[in-house]
Amino acid sequence: MPLPHISVMLLLPFIILLLTTAACTALGFLVHRQAVTWTAMAGLIITAASLIPLWDRHLSSFGGALLGDPFGIALSLVILLGALLALLSSLDSAKRSSLSFPEYDLMLLLGVLGSVLLAMAGNLIVLLIGLEIMSLSAYVLATLQASRSSEEAGMKYFLLGAVGSAVLIYGIALVYGATGHFGLSGIAAALGHAAASNLPVLLLGTLMLLVGFGFKVALVPFHQWTPDVYSGSPTLVTLYMSVVIKTAAFAGLIRVFQMALSGVHGWVIPAEVIIALTLILGNFAALREENFKRMLAYSAVAHSGYLALALVAKSSLAEPALIYYLLTYTLMNAGAFAVVAVLQRDDSGVTISDLRGLYSRRPGLAVALAALLASLSGLPPFAGFFGKFVLFSAALQSGFVGLTVIAAVTSMAALFYYLRPAALMFFSEPAQTPQLPAAPRQYSAVAVWVAVGGTLLIGVLPNLVMQLLQRPLT
Amino acid sequence: MILFLILALLSLVGGVLTIAASNAIHAVLGLVGTLISLAMLYVTLDAHFLAAVQVIVYAGAVMVLFLFVVMLLNAARPVSSRDPIPYVRELAVIFGVLLAGSLLLVLNGYAPPRSLANAASDLAGGAPGPVGAVLLSKFLLPFEAVSLLLLVAVIGSVALVLRPQVQEDPAPEPAAQPGRGETA
Amino acid sequence: MLVVAGAIGLLALIVGSLLGPKKGSRTKLMPYESGNDPSGTARERFPVHFYIVAMLFIVFDIETAFFYPLAVAFKQFGAFAFWEALVFVILVLIGYFYVLKRGVLDWR
């Protein structure tokens, strides 16, 4: 057997992340948890720096099992950014959520490792293992707080996540059975000369992959865990899940379907139905929620619908749009959950009426949250607007008119639930309910303002990002 | 073929017992039956190493863990309460039948993409050697990644069972200042 | 052969259950505990400590299961196999280090 080709350059980000994890494990027994967090953040930044020189080199390693294409690198950078924001806001919010121990940082780092592996996976086995590393660490993170709601959320997440993984594995097995390949490019090549009698097997496998990923990225009707898990988990963990897990799961989904299975006929219509359902149900369910965290959970489901437009659109249009929107989404959602983490009394989050008159008490936070909500709803000049624009136009130019119309109409409806809390913050008397905690949180504030500044910057100057993405990405 | 049918039937019986038994210990034993008959199926397919691993890891270690959990939670009492979700059984039956039907239909005309004779000679009678060779060449990255999966499992399970102590912030939070003067 | 062997086994069971007397008394149905009368029920709850050890055992069991084929294929790959196995071991050892430091294996 020939030895596999190993590119050390491409492995460097993983080596750095591993060393950081090892260092944090040891440091956790020696120093205070905040020092561990700083170490982890430094590791993430060095990892990001090690990814940048790979940008245009299209390296691949292990016989195509690991791909260093711009698609994977860009999404890895987004994952690292999301993890950085999660760690940054945990520096001062973790204590009150009873999460202030090094295990939080450790599990988060390992989850990031799995996510980056998933984003760069070139074959289905690596993809699966990356996904499992990421999911396992997410289950642990969701359960890590010693409280009933956290345990319940973790349990639900684990059970439904395990079902999703099982379906996904089944799908991988069927796709392998039909094509004889695990590698994404190998599958795509084998589609051309696959025996006609194997096409049903292939289609069944493809649909199972769609369902499995549907669980992971929360597409309707596989989204039921999302509101419960997002609202039951500690807010800091919800922040991490809503950005890092979502980015990585979408990276895997789009990789598999755009790179390997785009030649399979018959999955596009089910995918369209699922996306339409996700858009409609996610947005309308969010309208009824009074708990801000649950509302953001349904908003995350709705955003899965927008992002999944990249699944059906032509890959040359879909991939840049997806990367841009995931970057935007990471900034907006991380910011919004960081605000919740600052405002909340306990990890059940805040209700929308708690936000009444926030402007008179915490003007800075109120302005930031309003900006983030405006961006989530897709108002210019924030990045959410341009992100929706590129995604919708990618779907439209690929000929999915109906889907684009549904997306546009539902995002009008979404304006209601995003702007109602924003309006309450400014134009309403402060609530008489018990005071929200008012301790200053410098680190969370930095995270929030990075998020707001980022959405504003790439919203006003979208070409900063889009220019980089005008090249073959995979 | 007869052997296959017998083993397949055994594993199905075990599977049905697993989900139908009202006593958790019986369910676990049903699962053991399924796993062991699967291991025997692997033997008939000449995958001897896989069969051994299946018996050692699944039927041995994992099942012991299952029994541990049943004991730990005192879950051996029969389940008597109703399903919390209405119609879940009926729905499960419908979807199960649908899945089985579509699998039957789909696998009917299945032709393996590579000739099975070649694959059999590559396997060399299911000895561990070829498995190791593939692990070190074609599947090297997944092999190393599995160690990460194990690492997550170790740290995660210990952290969940023995919850770590919450550390105080080094500097005490200054007393809340009323109203103005705060940015965030 | 197999069918005959299976049939003989089954036959023995069936004949035994048909012909044998079925008289259960309290003493006969008691679990066997080396001749002593059983004390309490066998289905007892026990400390969570056992459970963690069992879980850790599985993790390292899987590690062993991976190393067995590696050892067989070792000669083909030589030093390369050594380094790769070392990476694997070190990664799992990080977990082992954590377990030791948390005092999971201390019995007090």
Structure description:
The complex is a heterotrimer of chains A (474), B (184) and C (108). Chain A is an all-alpha fold. Chain A contains 19 helices and two strands. Chain A has helices spanning 8-27, 33-51, 70-93, 102-119, 124-143, 148-179, 184-192, 199-217, 225-232, 235-260, 268-288, 292-312, 315-343, 358-361, 363-377, 383-397, 401-427, 442-460, 463-466; strands spanning 59-61, 66-68. In chain A, helix 3 runs parallel beside helix 13, helix 3 packs antiparallel against helix 18 (442-460) and helix 12 (292-312) packs antiparallel against helix 17. The model of chain A has no long low-confidence stretch (mean pLDDT 91). Chain B is mostly helical and 184 residues long. Among the domains of chain B are: 1-80, NADH-ubiquinone/plastoquinone oxidoreductase chain 6, subunit NuoJ (Four Helix Bundle (Hemerythrin (Met), subunit A), Up-down Bundle); 127-164. Chain B has seven helices and no strands. Chain B starts with a helix and ends in a 23-residue tail after the last helix. Chain C is an all-alpha fold. Chain C has a domain at 48-101: Methane Monooxygenase Hydroxylase, Chain G, domain 1, CATH 1.20.58. Chain A binds chain C through residues 1, 3, 18, 21-22, 25-26, 29, and chain C through 76-77, 80, 91, 94, 97-98, 101.
